[in-house]
Each structure stands twice: as C-alpha cells, then as structure tokens.
C-alpha cells in the first residue's frame, strides 16, 4: 500500500509499541518507523529484529521531523511527556497514544492546545509479555482499537490514526474518552482488581499447598501477576469510574452473600443467570 | 498390574466418573468396571468407547456384587443415594465418592454406620466438558486427589481407594473433611462465586459491546459458565466455610477500595504484593 504517513515515531518499544511498529511497517502503512526507548539493549533488539527502521533514546530529538507520533509508554508517563513532545514535533504532526485510560491524556492534549491533531487510542489487546521481544505483527488482527477524538479533532488526523490501525488488521471504534473510561473500568480495571483482591484474600487465610489450587483459581487470578506500577497508575487516573465499578461489584457481592446465607436458592439462581447472560454476551 | 479390586461400580458416568473408570481400567487396577447412569445414550457411548465393561440404569441392582462403589454423581445426589447403596451393596464393599464438598457425605456415611469402609475423595481436576464423551484416561495424571477418611476408617479400605487413584497417576493427599471443605472454600468455591458476581455486576451496568471485553475479563470470568445447579448445591452444602471465605474477600475488597479512594498508593502496593505472593506460591 502507499504509506499513510512517511515518518512515524513510536515512543516506547514495549510489546504494544513494537507490535504496532512492525505491523504497520509490514503492511506498508508507514514509510519509516523510528523506535524510541530508554533501554539501549531493547532498542538494538528492535532494530535487529526489523521491527523499526531507526532507533533513538531521545524522544524530543526523534520527533523533530515526525508526521505521526505514537506515545506507547505507560499511561502516566504519556501524560507527563505530552507537552514536551508537542513543543518538539512539527506543527503538522498528528499525535496519538495507546493508553488504557483516556480522559487524562485527552485533557493534557487540550491543555497543550493540540486537541485538533491529537487522537487518543487504546488497543484492547496484549498479554502479560513485555518488551520488544514480545512484538507480534498479528497482535491487533481482529482486535478492537478504541479512538477517542474530541469534537474539534481534525477529520484528516482522525482518518490517519484510523487508517494506521486498520492496516494492522484492527477494528476501530470511536467514542468519547469519558465513555471509554467508564466501560473499561467495568470490562478491564474491575476484573484486574477483583483478581488482586481474590489472591490477597486467600493469602491472608494461611498457607495452602499449591496442589490444592485447581484450574478455576488459576484462570480467575491470572491477572494477579500483572505489572503493579501500571495498575497503581490506572487506579489513580481512572479513580472515579473504577470506584463506581467497585461499588457495583460490592453491592452484587452483598446480595450474593445474603442469598447464600439465607439459603435463598431462587435468589442465588437469579444472580447466576444474570452472570451467565453477561458471559455469553461478552463472548459472542 | 494385578487388579486392586475385581468389580467396581461407578455411579454416574459424567466426565469424572467415566475418566476414573477408563483410567483405572487401562491401568489394570480394576477387573471389571460397571458404569451406572440415568441416560441410556450416554451409557451406550461409554460401553462402545470401551470406558466400562458393563452398564446399568439401576444403581441398587448394579452394586449387589460390588467390591468397590464409586459415587460420581453431583454432590447433593451422592448424599441422597448413599443409604440405599449401602443397603444394596455387599457388607465387604468399600465405598468412596468424588464430590467437591466432603463433610455432608462423610456425615451421611457415619449415619449409615459405614464410616469404617467409606473413604471420601475429591479429585481436583476436570474442566467444563461434561458427559462420558469428555472422558480422558489422563485426566488425573499429576493432579491432586484429596481423601478424607475418618479416624475409624479401615486401613485396608483407605489403601484400596488410594491405590485406585494412584493407578490413574494422581497424587493422593489425606486430610479431614472439615479441613478439605475450608480449603476448597478458598481455592475453588470463592473464585467461582467471585466470577459469578463479577459477570452479574458488569451485566447490571448496561449493555457493553462484546468487542470491548478483553482477554483479562474472559479469563477472570471463565467459571461463570459452570453448571448452576452444581454450585447452588455446593453453596448449600459448604455454606459456613463459603461464607467465611466470602467475608474474608469482602474485608480485603473494602481495604482495596479505601486505598484507591484515598490515593494511598503504599497501601495499594501492599495489597498487590500480597496478591502476587499468593499467586506465585499457588502456581509453584
């Protein structure tokens, strides 16, 4: 395909940034991809593996001639970096990110006066593997990417970011940053904190031999090994929506406990039926 | 190997019963296995697939000449069936079960006056597949089977049940029924009700497109498709230990919510660290 942008700079060459770089590059959607990171070894690996065309450890120098800047750092770092990148990048550059909370970065873009050419993004993909070594050009195929342009966003900037993602095989949805954060609080952040709480709660009940944990525990708590600092940041940045989601869970949990305590099997079956309906819908 | 028992009758040819039958039969641990079930089609399938040597739809007639009776029905049915089976089986027969709650069936065995030759069992294995078609002779290899003999149990009866399980490749642990139920409330029943509650709670928050649920939600809620009637029965039969486990979770959940609401990142990190320690230990 004809490149959608000539020169894209990806800030952060972890699994998401490096996968986007290699997927867009393989699709011919980007003429030249520059990978920016702090770790020299990770950058060299990205270059040697053909994930990127150039590498740099200096984000401000790297974006000087960028047509597209993709901020693929942890979500709190992205907010901190934005104003510096805006000052260093050409006035024509389109900026986007991949963070899992959208309101803070969208607000930061507005504060920098670039909401017309900033298009927030969040690919709903990725596992627990980290670093450029986990890059996968097929990571986004068939997966959802949410874009959260503000009403004043330049349609050409939106079209550029959408086209890059579509070139990776992703399916793009648009919604407001507030709606994104509210939904992800339920579908991603709540399950994460439930998994943490389940593990911590079992831990406090004393030493139990590994042999007595079955596959149900293993799957339900898979997320408990997720990176802590990422989740501390998400809890801070999406606190309001996360607390509302947690309160909804608390209220359901109290209802379930009451039904079990009272041997109210009809009440228990109703909750289980609601659970099944949601599970079936979410997998459809 | 020389058969450990000549004639074993497995009541219930679902995935656990049929897997035990075929695994013990292939290992030569049982001379003749009789499969008992209500569904004729499932029994014929079990016979044709070579999982069992004989089939019957009449549990009382089937156990008349049994050396070993394995009750592999749902846990509440097992309690209901026990006294009839005891009356119909020879006085020499050893009885065991595979239920995931142990105190009620152990109490029922004591009430029938057979606690010397009843050895409760629980294989910590099995997925969501059901029926004889899901039988797998390797299902128990390397997995844990908990036996809960009472202090008055006949050592020969314990040795028989242990040897059958070891022939399938399982690793046998012994503990009291009360300790089993307390531990499984934490490692199995609590995760199950957490998964139900998580799904039901998200369902109440409105319609969310399937594309917005990621792999974290999928894994954390895998258990929400489990059979409802089995879990209604487990909640009833292990109510005390389950409610204690739920209360431990509630208290942890309140603590986590308070840390997030107060932006107490040190408190949040402490809980996350406890979670990681438990997760790592449970997987070791």
Tags for this model:
homodimer, 284 residues, alpha/beta, Rossmann fold, 6-phosphogluconate dehydrogenase C-terminal fold, 2 domains, 11 helices
How would you explain this protein's 3D organization?
The structure is a homodimer of 284-residue chains. Chain A starts with a strand and ends with a helix. Chain A has 2 domains: 171 residues, NAD(P)-binding Rossmann-like Domain (Rossmann fold, 3-Layer(aba) Sandwich), CATH 3.40.50; 104 residues, 6-phosphogluconate dehydrogenase C-terminal fold (Orthogonal Bundle), CATH 1.10.3660. In chain A, helix 10 runs antiparallel to helix 11. In chain A, helix 5 links the parallel strand 5 and strand 6. In chain A, 52% of the residues lie in helices and 14% in strands. Chain A is built from 11 helices and 8 strands. Chain A has 284 residues and is of the alpha/beta class. Chains A and B meet through helix 7, helix 8, helix 9, helix 10 and helix 11 of A and helix 7, helix 8, helix 9, helix 10 and helix 11 of B.
Would you tell me which CATH topology of the largest domain in chain A applies?
Rossmann fold
Over the alpha carbons, how many angstroms does the gyration radius of chain A reach? 21 Å
Classify the helix fraction of chain A into a percent range: 40-55%
The total domain count of chain A is 2
């Amino acid at each position: 395909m004809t490149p959608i942008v000539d020169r894209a700079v990806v800030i952060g060459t972890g699994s998401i940034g490096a996968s986007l770089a290699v997927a867009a590059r393989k699709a011919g959607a980007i003429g030249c991809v520059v990978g920016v990171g702090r770790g020299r070894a990770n950058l060299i690996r990205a270059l040697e593996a053909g994930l990127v065309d150039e590498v740099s450890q200096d984000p401000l120098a790297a974006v000087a001639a960028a047509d597209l800047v993709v901020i693929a750092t942890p979500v709190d770092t992205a907010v901190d970096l934005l104003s510096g990148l805006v000052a260093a990048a050409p006035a024509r550059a389109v900026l986007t990110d991949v963070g899992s909370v959208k309101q803070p970065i969208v607000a930061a873009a507005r504060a920098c006066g670039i909401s017309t050419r900033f298009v927030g993004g969040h690919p709903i993909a990725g596992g627990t593997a980290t670093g450029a070594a986990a890059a996968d050009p097929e990571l986004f195929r068939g997966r959802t990417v949410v874009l959260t342009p503000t009403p004043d966003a330049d349609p050409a900037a939106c079209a550029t970011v959408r086209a890059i993602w579509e070139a990776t095989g992703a399916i793009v949805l648009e919604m407001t940053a507030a709606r994104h954060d509210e939904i992800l609080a339920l579908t991603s952040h709540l399950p994460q904190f439930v998994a943490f709480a389940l593990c911590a709660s079992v831990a406090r009940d004393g030493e139990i031999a590994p042999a007595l944990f079955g596959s149900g525990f293993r799957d339900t708590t898979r997320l408990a090994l997720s990176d802590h600092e990422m989740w501390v940041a998400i809890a801070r940045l999406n606190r309001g929506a996360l607390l509302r989601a947690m309160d909804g869970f608390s209220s359901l949990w109290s209802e379930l406990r009451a039904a079990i305590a009272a041997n109210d099997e009809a009440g228990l079956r109703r909750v289980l039926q609601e659970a099944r309906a949601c599970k079936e819908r979410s997998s459809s």
